[in-house]
Design brief:
By secondary structure, the chain is mostly beta strands. The protein has one domain: Nucleoside-specific channel-forming protein, Tsx-like (Outer membrane phospholipase (ompla), Chain C). The protein has one helix and 14 strands. Strands 1-2-3-6-7-8-9-10-11-12-13-14 form a twelve-stranded antiparallel β-barrel. Strand 1 and strand 2 form a beta hairpin. The longest helix has 9 residues. The protein is globular. Keywords: Signal. This is MetA-pathway of phenol degradation.
Length: 281
């Protein structure tokens, strides 16, 4: 257990954007990992035609190792660490950026660390026959990336959201959603910030005991004129997950809904859950 905790914290020096406990969705469910258990997730993302407003770059983004470690601390509190070991961008276009880049003239690719996120989730109310479950989630994104590489913001951001969920159709269909706010550090004005609205609506349908289909719409909305890098973003994801050989596997397609979202993409991953520690009584 000590090795797992040290390894998880060591990953904080690397980085990635926020993800969810329910791979391969971005929307977060209300449910908590069972007390004393650890949910380990490993995946890979490929996004085509991704724009980066701060650097002016556009290209195909590849994240070969996307990690998530989720701890069930007790029946209504969970803690998560999420991040990517390294991001790679195949450059299609070099537009006008707001910052200088440490890239060679004519470079066709770049790579760098992403920004890790620490999350605490609290389940406030269980689902009843008529009322949905309710929870909150609070996160801090750490400045692990190097913005001069063209694909990171190297900024500390804070997120807070309300979670709601309800199972219907004899508990075969799980509906859940998020609504919250992100307090984002300005990428060009020292000491300034911009507040954005974050949202997500998702559904998971159990086809069989081993197979689920899933889908969502999730993103963020910036009501102000955004500074470079803090533009509105949104995605649609459709996919499936299945349980085999003691693991849960997932695969989903991605379509962007805004100019600064990927035009299309694919995400794949595997989840393994195990008992990691004895709760303190």
């Amino acid at each position: 257990m000590a090795v797992l905790l040290v390894g998880g914290w060591a990953l904080l020096s690397l980085g990635m954007p926020a993800a969810a406990q329910q791979r391969s969705l971005l929307t977060e469910d209300v449910d908590i990992v069972e007390t004393g258990r650890i949910r380990l997730q490993v995946g890979a993302d490929f996004f085509q035609n991704q724009r980066f407003g701060l650097s002016g770059l556009r290209g195909d983004l590849f994240r070969p190792v996307v990690l998530g470690v989720h701890f069930g601390l007790n029946s209504n509190v969970g803690f998560s660490v999420e991040g990517s070991l390294r991001d790679y961008l195949s450059i299609r276009e070099r537009g006008t950026g707001a910052i200088p880049l440490s890239l060679a003239p004519g470079a066709t690719s770049t790579s760098g660390a992403s920004d890790f996120t620490l999350w605490t989730k609290i389940k406030l109310r269980k689902e009843t026959r008529r009322a949905p479950s309710l929870g909150v989630r609070i996160g801090v994104q750490l400045p692990n990336s190097d913005q001069a590489r063209g694909i990171g913001l190297n900024a500390t951001n804070v997120f807070g959201m309300v979670l709601v969920g309800k199972q219907v159709a004899r508990e075969r269909l799980n509906l859940f959603g998020n609504l919250g706010v992100g307090i984002l550090t300005s990428t060009v004005e020292p000491g300034a910030q911009q507040d954005v609205l974050t949202y997500g609506a998702a559904a998971i349908y159990r086809v069989t005991e081993r197979v689920d289909v899933l889908g969502e719409v999730a993103g963020r909305y910036n009501p102000r004129t955004p500074v470079p890098g803090l533009e509105s973003q949104a995605q649609v994801r459709l996919g499936a997950r299945w349980r085999a050989a003691g693991f849960q596997w997932d695969l989903a397609g991605v379509a962007g809904l805004t100019r600064f979202s990927p035009r299309r993409g694919l995400t794949f991953g595997v989840t393994y859950e195990f008992k990691g520690f004895e709760p303190v009584k």
